[in-house]
Known about the structure:
By secondary structure, the protein is α+β, with helices and mostly antiparallel strands. The chain has a domain at 282-343. The chain is 43% helix and 9% strand. The protein contains 15 helices and 11 strands. The longest helix is centred in the N-terminal third of the chain and has 17 residues, at 73-89. The protein starts with 6 loop residues before the first strand and ends with a helix.
Amino acid sequence: MGLEKVHLQTRAIRSRELLLFSSGCGIGAALLGICVESKMWRLKIFFFALLMLALVPMTGQFSDPGARAEGDAPLFTVWLQELRAEALGQGISAATLDVALAGVRPIPRVIELDRSQPEGTLTFKQYMDLVVPNSRVAKGRVMLKENAVALKAVHKVYNVQPRFIVALWGIETNFGQHTGGFSVIASLATLAFDGRRSAYFRSELLNALRILEEGHIAPDAMTGSWAGAMGQSQFMPSSFVRFAIDFDGDGKRDIWTTKLDVFGSAANYLSESGWKGDQTWGRKVRLPANFDTALASLKISNSLADWQALGVRRANGQNLPIVAGMMGSIVFPGGNDGPAFLVYDNFKTTLKWNRSTYFAMAVGHLADRISGQ
Length: 373
């Protein structure tokens, strides 16, 4: 699990199909919303206190007087009947729809959160300090140890190193503690009815109904962010359909309460996105004084030997590891005056989960610290 690509909203649009939220929406990135600014590599994010409020359903009024709300109940009823007919046509049973759609009404708080987004600005260092604090590192080490058997089993199948799964888990939902308390069906119905991105959210709602039809979760237990990102991995329903797996073999893909399924689904997402289990994500590097900053781009990828020849060294001044076939790109997440990093293919794969450079940096950094690197 994004507005995934342009506007990353707190625990909101964690879907990789939206113009990036954050993320699944995901939150520090489980508690932060992020906006990517172009050349300055800065991110806009929600104030932490307001983000915390966004995780819990609340009553409230629309900030936009023209927003479609509870006053549009008759129109919503007609719209919901049309949605029901479409769902029936896609093979979702009347029994499932009767339960899932019973009592569903537009949620003013969801529209309020979608439209009212107080923003501040964090530097790269501030973001990293907030998302990868020592407390999260310490807890991540505990989680890595406590779940070693499950993570080892998942690693054997998907070849994704446990430390990266735990890092994503920690950043997305603080190791499963902050998954959101909104009804996914009601939230998605609200956003689909609202009209601004109705086609996207209507599709996500139909996917959510399909998940219920398959029996993976009960309707009253299908909770998540206000934008519909679900479970401990914050998958949007479409991502669930594509990537969630039943790792424990009980017949349900349960990313809400079953850790094996949570870990397996995250690993499957990364694996299907091109993860390389024999590589890490990247490293901080030292650049020569005459380094051409025009070479710092994810679009420019060179072998480690080529970067070595250009004077790039490890942060401690030692030579780069020369691994045949391993490619890397130079990035300045904090701007040209900030630290430089040589990032590998797995960093770019992480960007498919959440297209925020800050987020991908945080995942790699947390993974390294969790494993003691």
